[in-house]
Amino acid sequence: MTDKEKKIPYKIYLSENEMPTQYYNVRADMKKKPAPLLNPGTLKPMTAEELGHVFCDELVQQELNETDPYIDIPEEIRNFYKMYRPSPLVRAYCLEEKLQTPAKIYYKFEGNNTSGSHKLNSAIAQAYYAKKQGLKGVTTETGAGQWGTALSMACSYFGLDCKVFMVKVSYEQKPFRREVMRTYGASVTPSPSMETEVGKKINAEFPGTTGSLGCAISEAVEVATSTEGYRYVLGSVLSQVLLHQSVIGLETKIALDKYDIRPDIIIGCAGGGSNLGGLISPFAGEMLRGEADYRIIAVEPKSCPSLTRGKYVYDFCDTGEVCPLAKMYTLGSQFIPSPNHAGGLRFHGMSSIVSELYDQGYIEARAYEQTEVFAAAEEFARCEGILPAPESSHAIKGAMDEALKCKETGEEKTIVFGLTGTGYFDLTAYQQFNDGTMTDSIPTDEDIAASLAKVPQFPGNETK
Ligand SMILES: *Cc1c(COP(=O)(O)O)cnc(C)c1O
């Protein structure tokens, strides 16, 4: 029986009462756990008390919780999710037809909300716990603006103040997301600013700098830790964020199970690792428990190849070196990725959960150049209708390549990929692609070795 006869719909929508009521914490099923965050001063694991100066209490508990497989999603968060979830699992019939592949392709579409990406899933959870703790507000950084946009929506819903440090070059060149944030009531400051000690220092050292994500993180952390009633929140990388993003994978699994579909390959783009980690969590859990086997593929840009060319060591999450040390695949916190339009993938490191699963061999990784990614994005847009975000298009390219392999071998593999967002605010990038002026820049081995040499060196953490 063909899938059309089995009536697998173009879109599988869950009803509201089928939505997950608990997050899934994949660390509980990992025999070897991700390495703990370290205090860079003492090189000892960060305690809940130390983390509590920076993050909300309940989020610290989630960050440190590596034993409870399931954590309840509070009703307030579930109510918010209902505004834009469940998100559809789409059968890419049109793409399959266009590629003439026997593969069956599905994508979980997370772009159907104003912030345009999956980041809202964690933003609303983090805002909820901040509100519950009685805080006045939160601070954060944003690059291209997806995370800041999501957080500003979440904060306005719970009546929290939201202070965003936005990488200066994006603040100036990408005014649209900045204005979405302000519309939702956030204050947006270009970083490096003169409002923080670390910002002043970076401005003095590098006059005229247009900023970086790592430097904006340092500013946001400084304001959070020095202002009464404020904490810092982060949109990716941390284990708590992957926990919240597990709703993507849980919904995907429920939808697949409804139609007895078993994926062979699961693909996600990887910046800090949150959407990939969230999408794969329940599937990786089955692998870890020995119940099933899947191929999981992380796709990153060749301009910022942390999994494919980085080292698995402890490193700072920020350029200012004020954050704890995380053990992760990293290119070095001083690595400055060459310009790439997938702003959300320009982070030097990778979630410690994704890093550990990759190190244990549960995940494969590959990297693409941005021109081939945009070519895939355009092909996808022309047949599936959705204008994809440049970040998400890395996963599209990965899925298309796997589907084309099936065309050669005749295998009918089932491929599921995460379509994390839409690209309406990325049209300058599409313009460059359409004009034929887009270029690819790939760091040399020397570039990467130079930034890895600046990773903190201590016994067991040598990068040479
Ligand atoms: C931020 C972002 C990403 C990358 O972040 P992860 O934490 O790796 O998921 C991917 N896609 C979109 C649309 C984003 O906004």
Chemical compounds bound to the protein = pyridoxal-5'-phosphate
Q: Can you summarize the main beta sheet? A: 7 strands, mixed
Sheet/helix structural class: alpha/beta
Number of strands: 15
What's the rounded overall pLDDT mean? Answer: 95
Label the CATH architecture of the largest domain: 3-Layer(aba) Sandwich
| Total number of helices | 18
How many whole angstroms does the radius of gyration measure?
21 Å
Under CATH, the topology of the largest domain can be stated as: Rossmann fold
Query: So what's the CATH class of the largest domain?
Result: Alpha Beta
Distance from N terminus to C terminus (CA atoms, Å) equals 56 Å
Taking pLDDT < 50 over at least 5 consecutive residues as the criterion, the unreliable ranges are: none
> Could you estimate the helical fraction of the residues in percent?
40-55%
Strand content: 15-25%
Number of domains: 2
Placed side by side, the strands forming the largest sheet appear as 1-4-5-15-10-11-14
Anisotropy-based shape: globular
Folded structure, characterized:
It is globular, with a radius of gyration of 21 Å. It is an alpha/beta fold and 464 residues long. The protein has a seven-stranded mixed beta sheet, with helices on both faces. The longest helix is centred in the middle third of the chain and has 20 residues, at 239-258. 41% of the residues lie in helices and 16% in strands. The chain has helices at residues 48-52, 57-64, 75-81, 93-99, 120-132, 146-158, 168-173, 175-183, 197-205, 213-226, 239-258, 274-288, 306-309, 352-359, 370-384, 390-409, 427-435, 445-452; strands at residues 11-12, 22-24, 70-72, 89-91, 104-109, 137-142, 161-167, 187-191, 230-232, 265-269, 295-301, 311-316, 325-330, 364-368, 414-419. The chain has 18 helices and 15 strands. Strand 12 (311-316) and strand 13 (325-330) form a beta hairpin. It has two domains: 11-22 and 72-116 and 239-452, 3-Layer(aba) Sandwich (Rossmann fold), CATH 3.40.50; 120-235, Rossmann fold, CATH 3.40.50. Bound molecules: pyridoxal-5'-phosphate (PLP). Pyridoxal-5'-phosphate binds at residues 117, 119, 146, 236, 269-276, 344-345, 389, 391-392, 420-421. Keywords: Amino-acid biosynthesis, Aromatic amino acid biosynthesis, Lyase, Pyridoxal phosphate, Tryptophan biosynthesis. Pathway: Amino-acid biosynthesis; L-tryptophan biosynthesis; L-tryptophan from chorismate: step 5/5. Tetramer of two alpha and two beta chains. Its EC number is 4.2.1.20. It comes from Hornefia porci.
